[in-house]
Design goal:
Helix content is 36%, strand content 30%. It has 269 residues and is of the alpha+beta class. Strands 3, 4, 7, 8, 9, 10, 11 and 14 form an 8-stranded mixed sheet that branches. A 4-stranded antiparallel sheet has the order 2-1-5-6, with no helix packed on it.
Length: 269
């Protein structure tokens, strides 16, 4: 209760600072429309992200991450899928399912994505924004366009985690906070976050521009598991939970049942 009260106080102070200090001071120096733009930029990309990071440290202390992290520390997509196998098996599984590997994020791919999004032109290998788990951005990502549009797609990001870590309890922080990237070519745990893009939106905490996504990430997890099962790419599926405090309920603007699907990739015959 005291931690939640502290977070509330931080939130109230942030709103007061943005409205009565930053905007008021800016409006006296520049036209109000410019002041409004400057205030939005500072609030959405500087002040509120830092307040949220501080709040997460307070509220999530000693809890297990059930979601990825954005580049500025915001809660990202929930972790909902783990596949076991080599990178070659992972790529082959999604290729067989008709999914595309996402292009690396860079200036060229970002510009092509922005142009395709604005014109609603197909870009089946469009890049993903960077999310972080185990202290690094995703290692590989796959997607399936919806209606041949870059604005809507099924997609999943994966982070490799060495199989030696699978002997640890998934209900311990050590399992999720390990930062070592295993060598290429070895069988590993591919820890994934699957979501479905539906358009464009603003984040509800900081109001940054982002993709709109379907709230029900558990449904998207089941969709990915279903297409891999249909193609015979995975074996038996079991479920684990990410942790008591972050396993259920709303994470950012998502709803999830907290279940993480575990399955072993089947080598292509």
């Amino acid at each position: 209760m005291l931690r939640r009260l502290l977070v509330l106080v931080l939130g109230i102070f942030s709103v007061w600072l943005i409205v009565f200090v930053i905007f008021d001071d800016s409006e006296r120096r520049v036209p109000w429309i410019v002041a409004l733009g400057l205030t939005y930029g500072l609030a959405a990309y500087v002040i509120l992200p830092r307040v949220v990071r501080m709040s997460l440290k307070i509220l999530q202390r000693r809890s297990i991450p059930g979601f990825t992290i954005t580049g500025d520390g915001m809660p990202g997509d929930p972790v909902n899928l783990v596949l076991i196998g080599t990178e070659a098996e992972l790529r082959a599984a999604f290729q067989k399912a008709g999914w595309y590997t996402a292009d690396p994020l860079g200036a060229t791919s970002s510009w092509r994505m922005a142009r395709s999004f604005a014109m609603n032109a197909p870009y089946p290998t469009a890049p993903f924004s960077s999310l972080y788990l185990f202290g690094r951005r995703q290692d590989v990502g796959f997607q399936e366009p919806i209606d041949n549009s870059p604005r809507k797609r099924h997609h999943v990001r994966f982070w490799a985690l060495g199989l030696a870590r699978s002997e640890d309890d998934v209900a311990t922080a050590g399992f999720w906070l390990n930062t070592d990237k295993p060598p290429t070519g070895e069988p590993v745990l591919w820890v994934g976050a699957a979501t479905r893009d539906t358009g464009i939106s603003l984040t509800w905490i900081t109001f940054q521009v982002t993709h709109a996504t379907d709230d029900d990430t558990s449904h998207e997890r089941d969709y990915v598991v279903g297409i891999l099962r249909l193609g015979g790419a995975i074996g038996e599926v079991t479920f684990h939970r990410s942790g008591e405090q972050v396993g259920t309920g709303r994470v950012n603007h998502y709803t999830t049942d907290g279940g993480i699907a575990f399955a072993k990739l089947v080598a292509a015959g």
